[in-house]
Automatic annotation (TrEMBL):
<dbReference type="InterPro" id="IPR003010">
    <property type="entry name" value="C-N_Hydrolase"/>
</dbReference>
<keyword id="KW-0378">Hydrolase</keyword>
<dbReference type="Pfam" id="PF00795">
    <property type="entry name" value="CN_hydrolase"/>
</dbReference>
<feature type="domain" description="CN hydrolase">
    <location>
        <begin position="1"/>
        <end position="246"/>
    </location>
</feature>
<protein>
    <submittedName>
        <fullName>Hydrolase</fullName>
    </submittedName>
</protein>
<dbReference type="GO" id="GO:0016787">
    <property type="term" value="F:hydrolase activity"/>
</dbReference>
<dbReference type="InterPro" id="IPR036526">
    <property type="entry name" value="C-N_Hydrolase_sf"/>
</dbReference>
<comment type="similarity">
    <text>Belongs to the carbon-nitrogen hydrolase superfamily. NIT1/NIT2 family.</text>
</comment>
<dbReference type="InterPro" id="IPR001110">
    <property type="entry name" value="UPF0012_CS"/>
</dbReference>
Length: 271
């Protein structure tokens, strides 16, 4: 498989509309790739909390339209990163009127293949944690070569989510993010840990630039099922392209069948 991670720089002087158009052009330039991945909240910036409300859009909104067209034009599977999604009040769904950090995946014909609402929201008692609702569903996407498991940024710190994705058949874990530079060491460490413990590929795509004054880590990374780094970007805007053998997941799990030794349902120790 050939995957291209688009490490987008978020510049406050560039309008959201202009950035959508620019990124759509970048996606089209990846024709020949099997999978293209964008970062988390690249339209607004992951730390631009004050912009979430103003720039939130319905699932089938302007970002959806442009990314669907770009995926079809390039003929690629596209993980279009995430958007601040607004669920219209009164639409009959749970959380009507709420905001979510929602990822979109498109097939090579431009059809929506999946949507994933971020489960673990960052900020503790402020920012995303209070402005956005929490998703509740694990999402996988079947590609011809592999099955993707979807997670977003802060999710990377919660290994039980990734175990659930593996149990659902995931072989390639895709993690768009807006990860800050000051915790870049954690970004690399956690991406490799999730790959090793789940014997899966990890494609972790971050942003460059600064979000509301918060410098971003960049350093998008692709890790194989043994924890080896196949490719890593620098700090600036960059297209990181890598070819990998999707069949290596099954081979690794057969050669070193650690997942078969999991012990579930352990009792909580008495105190």
């Amino acid at each position: 498989m050939r995957a291209s991670l688009l490490q987008i720089a978020v510049d406050e002087d560039e309008s959201v509309h202009s950035r959508r158009r620019r990124v759509a052009s970048l996606v089209r330039e990846q024709a020949g790739a099997d999978l293209v991945v964008l970062p988390e909240l690249w339209t607004t910036g992951a730390f631009a909390f004050e912009s979430f409300e103003a720039e939130a859009e319905p699932l089938h909104g302007p970002t959806y339209e442009l990314m669907a067209e770009a995926a079809a034009d390039a003929g690629v599977w596209l993980h279009a990163g995430s958007i601040p999604e607004r669920v219209p009040a009164g639409d009959g769904s749970s959380g009507g009127g709420a905001l979510y950090n929602t990822s979109l995946v498109f097939s090579p014909d431009g059809a929506r293949a999946a949507a994933y609402r971020k489960i673990h929201r960052f900020g503790f008692d402020k920012g995303e944690a209070v402005l956005m609702g929490a998703g509740s569903e694990l999402v996988t996407v079947g590609l011809p070569e592999t099955t993707l498991g979807l997670a977003t940024c802060y999710d990377l710190r919660f290994p039980e989510l990734f175990r659930g994705l593996v149990d659902a058949g995931a072989e390639t874990l895709v993690v768009p993010a807006g990860w800050p530079e000051r915790r870049r060491a954690h970004w690399t460490l956690l991406a490799r840990a999730r790959a090793v413990e789940n014997q899966a590929y990890v494609l972790a795509c971050g942003t460059a630039g600064a979000h509301a004054g918060v410098p971003q880590a960049g350093h998008s990374i692709v890790v194989d099922p043994w924890g080896e780094v196949l490719a890593e970007a620098g700090p600036g805007e960059q297209v990181l392209t890598v070819e990998f053998d999707a069949a290596k997941v099954a081979a690794t799990r057969e050669q070193f069948p650690a997942l078969k030794d999991r012990l579930l349902g352990l009792e909580t120790p008495r105190r």
